Fold:
Amino acid sequence: MKKNILFLCTFIVAVTSLFISCKKDMVAVSISLTTQPASARVYAGDPFTIAGTASTTGKFRMIEMLANPIDGSAPIMLPDGAVTSCANTSGTINFSQIITSIKKSSLVKVMVVDQKGATASVDFNVIIKQQNTTAPVTAISFYTATTGGNIADIGLAVSARGVVYDVNPHPTIALTTKTSDGTGIGTFVSSLTGLLFGQDYYVRSYSVTSDGVLYGNELFFTTLTPDIPTPVVPNGTFELPVISGFVMNPQPNVWSFSGGGGEQRNGSPFGAATAPEGVQTGLLQGDSQMSQTFTFTAQNLALSFMAAQRGTQTQTLDILFDDALVSTIQPTSSTWTNYTTKTFTASAGDHKITIKGTNTHGGDNSAFIDDLKLILRN
Structure:
């Protein structure tokens, strides 16, 4: 209390000194806030407006705004809340100030000062709302993790809460990858299931109120990777054998080609974009295919690769595992793009992977393929 009184005394002395050169008339001062409610709820540093009118019978000089934090810390003169003038102004003065400097819940005093240093004031509360928080991610396994959060009390009913997560930053509740963990404010625990192993995830808490969705801070975690060697695709970049131009069914080769299947080198008459890996790529022209036999342990896999069309032609690729269709992919342009098949299950032993150019659109339409990789899946 002594600290507040001392601060106000110092302020009044400073104001009186500021206007010592101005003519001093006896005036009556009053103030009313026309657009600011009796109290406000904002986040720390968020802008809000204090607006109203100051009425004097003499000459208006200053409007100042003082924040008295309710935690008892020192009063703060709001530097973005000052309106000053030494003009010969009387009557009613309209003012509107945008405030961004309040960091704590405070009693805000709006003070009007006349040229003599007389003041009038109006008070209102500014409550600083707390942000939601996201709990640290714990118990991380290959497929699961535990997190949660703390939903802040912002004066509104919380109709839903939980966490949302994704492989990309800033996930939103529009995603299906979210939990539903009750209603109301306070702490909660979320169990994340069905995750991919060895995958990076972003997660943050959320709450739903009549004002919309409020998110908590974003956290990052990576699920564990099982100690299973990832199978390598031999000659997955088609660098062997070394060729010039293009060759259908080049040998010796771990790949078996048929139809218009083969390899082409950068600068070939096919006009493919520069190979994303090395200098050669696979080629599937018309009704053609390439296949290779692998020896697997029991595991779930997907095939990842780069693909591109020849110019504006259209070629469709079927990916088969032991002659069963896994995915159908149609490269969208002559620009190299990464594609990944659906997951397929390999039992321990030998299995064949086939990539077919189906040529469903007629002609000798061609596609190029490169950088084949097998990916472990759940």
Remarks:
- The chain has three domains: 2-129, 133-222, 246-377.
- Residues 2-18 form the longest helix (17 residues).
- The CA atoms of residues 163 and 270 lie 50 Å apart.
- The first strand starts at residue 29 and ends at 33.
